[in-house]
Design brief:
5 helices, 2 domains, binds 2-acetamido-2-deoxy-beta-D-glucopyranose, alpha+beta, binds calcium ion, disordered C terminus, 12 strands, Mannose-Binding Protein A, Chain A
Length: about 220
C-alpha cells in the first residue's frame, strides 16, 4: 500500500511527489482529500433527496401509484371494465374472471353513482343493460353477490317494482340482476332482475394494483 510505504511517486499535476513528508506532496494530498470529502457529501445529498422522494410517494401511494391494466378504469381503489359483448350471466362472469376480476359488487351508494354515470357511455339504446354480480339462483329471493356475500338490504338500488321475477326470454326464473336506464329510471333505481341466460353487456371489477415502481421515477 502506497500510503504506508515511506516513499511513493506520482507525476500528477506535473510535479514530483517522492514521500509523505515532501513539502511538495502536501498540496496534492490535501487536494485529493478535499475532493473525496466533497464527493462523499454530494453523494449523501442525492441519497437523501432520493429517500425523501420515496417517502413522499409512499404517503401518496393511493393517489399516485394505483394502477389498472389497459381496458380498465380506475375508481376508488378498484378497476372497472365495461364489457359490451352480450352474453349470459355465467359466461359474463367467466369473462371477468379470465381478466383477473369478477362481475361487479356494488358496496356503496358512491360506487353505484359512478357506475350509473359511466353506463351512458356504453349504452346504445334504452334496452341496453349490464350484468352486475348479483344473483338469487341458489335460493329464490336470497340475493348474493358473486363472492358469496349477502346483499345488504339498506344498500339496494332496485328499479320500481323490482325484483319482479320476470324473465325476458320466457324462462321460468329471473335470477340474475342487470343494471341500466329504462324509461325514467334514476341512478338509485336502476337494478332489474331477469333470466340469467338472457344475453347482456356486463361490468367487471377487480382491485387496483399498487405500483411501487413510481418511487424510482419520482
Ligand atoms: C391506501 O388505501 C388502502 C385501502 O384502500 C388503505 O388500507 C391504506 O391505508 C391506504 N394507504 C395510504 C398510505 O393512504
Ligand atoms: C351457472 O354456473 C353454475 C356453476 O358454475 C351452475 O350451477 C348454473 O347452473 C349455471 N347457470 C346457468 C343459468 O347456466
Ligand atoms: C366515454 O367517456 C369518455 C370520457 O369519460 C369520452 O371521452 C368518450 O368519448 C366516451 N365514449 C363514448 C363512446 O361515449
Ligand atoms: C349496510 O349498508 C349500510 C349503509 O351503507 C351500512 O351502514 C351498514 O354497515 C351495512 N351493513 C353491512 C352488514 O355491511
Ligand atoms: C319466481 O318465479 C319462480 C318460477 O315461476 C317461482 O318458483 C318463485 O317462487 C318466484 N319467486 C318469487 C319471489 O315470487
Ligand atoms: Ca365494488
Amino acid at each position: 500500500m502506497g500510503l504506508h510505504s515511506k516513499t511513493f511517486t506520482t507525476k500528477l499535476f506535473a510535479f514530483k511527489c517522492d514521500s509523505y513528508y515532501n513539502k511538495k506532496c502536501l498540496p496534492l494530498l490535501l487536494c485529493v482529500g478535499l475532493l473525496l470529502f466533497f464527493y462523499a457529501h454530494i453523494l449523501q445529498y442525492f441519497a437523501k433527496l432520493y429517500l425523501l422522494q420515496c417517502h413522499l410517494n409512499s404517503v401518496d401511494l393511493n393517489e399516485t401509484c394505483l394502477k389498472c391494466g389497459a381496458g380498465w378504469e380506475l375508481h376508488g381503489g378498484n378497476c372497472y371494465n365495461f364489457n359490451t359483448m352480450k352474453s349470459s350471466w355465467n359466461e359474463s362472469r367467466d369473462s371477468c374472471k379470465y381478466l383477473g376480476g369478477d362481475l361487479v359488487k356494488i358496496d356503496s351508494r358512491e360506487e353505484q353513482m359512478f357506475l350509473f354515470g359511466r353506463l351512458s357511455n356504453f349504452t346504445v339504446n334504452e334496452q341496453d343493460k349490464f350484468w352486475i354480480g348479483l344473483t338469487d339462483s341458489e335460493e329464490e329471493d336470497r340475493w348474493l353477490w358473486a363472492d358469496g356475500s349477502p346483499l345488504n338490504s339498506s344498500l339496494t338500488f332496485w328499479a320500481d317494482n323490482q325484483p319482479d321475477n320476470k324473465s325476458l326470454d320466457g324462462a321460468a326464473e329471473a335470477d340474475c340482476v342487470r343494471m341500466g336506464k329504462k324509461g325514467g329510471a334514476d341512478f338509485l333505481k336502476s337494478w332489474f332482475d331477469t333470466s340469467c341466460n338472457y344475453p347482456q353487456k356486463s361490468i367487471c371489477e377487480k382491485a387496483a394494483e399498487t405500483g411501487q415502481s413510481s418511487c424510482v421515477y419520482g
